[in-house]
Amino acid sequence: MIVAESLSRTFGQGETAVQALRDVSVTIAENEFVAIMGSSGSGKSTLMNILGCLDTPSSGSYQLNNQLISQLDDVKLSALRNQHIGFIFQSFHLLPRLTAAQNVALPLRYSETEPAAALARANTLLELVGLGHRKEHKPHEMSGGQRQRVAIARALVNSPKVIFADEPTGNLDSKTSKEIMQLLCELHSKGNTIVMVTHEDDIAAYAKRVIRMRDGQILEDNRC
């Protein structure tokens, strides 16, 4: 699923340059549940951004689903992100003026899916995450946990090959965090590949493999 070889990423130039990643190589198979851990500045978010095709490495190579990312132009890269990758963010990134169903259906606007079919798909996924009764509510009318469930449904709407979750419980209380992680575990059990960034050991414990980073390098790579 994911093959990254000798990835390096440098921000800035000259004396002010910061090397966020240093010769990182990692392989993630289909249907793995991987947590990437590390303190602030360890490089974990930079690695996720590259794996999620939101950023490009300064050097090294990256293949996602047997496609060499460096060979894709902007149009093909956008299509790959939309069709094969689902994102879950700490701050949800929901559009405030749209209902839950409209937010979930949003990625389908960039496909050939008819609007009615897109909303039907969104409603099905909201039922899956336990929010069928909130489909007409807007983000400000929902709790943080409910908004994150909407974000998870949106991440699933295009049946992605891999889901990237960046601190998915960072803005949630412990009870809601447990509920969100149980939902991610259910998705993993159904075949989804999940790569999650977190700084919390109790959240990483839900994963089947934990990669620990420090100073832009992989320090440990352990399977549970």
From TrEMBL:
Pfam families: ABC_tran. One of its GO terms (molecular function) is ATP binding. InterPro entries: AAA+_ATPase, ABC_transporter-like_ATP-bd, ABC_transporter-like_CS, ABC_transpr_LolD-like, MacB-like_ATP-bd, P-loop_NTPase. The keyword Secreted does not apply. Residues 2-223 form the ABC transporter domain. Keywords: ATP-binding, Nucleotide-binding, Transport. PANTHER family: ABC TRANSPORTER ABCH.1, IMPORT ATP-BINDING PROTEIN. This is ABC transporter ATP-binding protein.
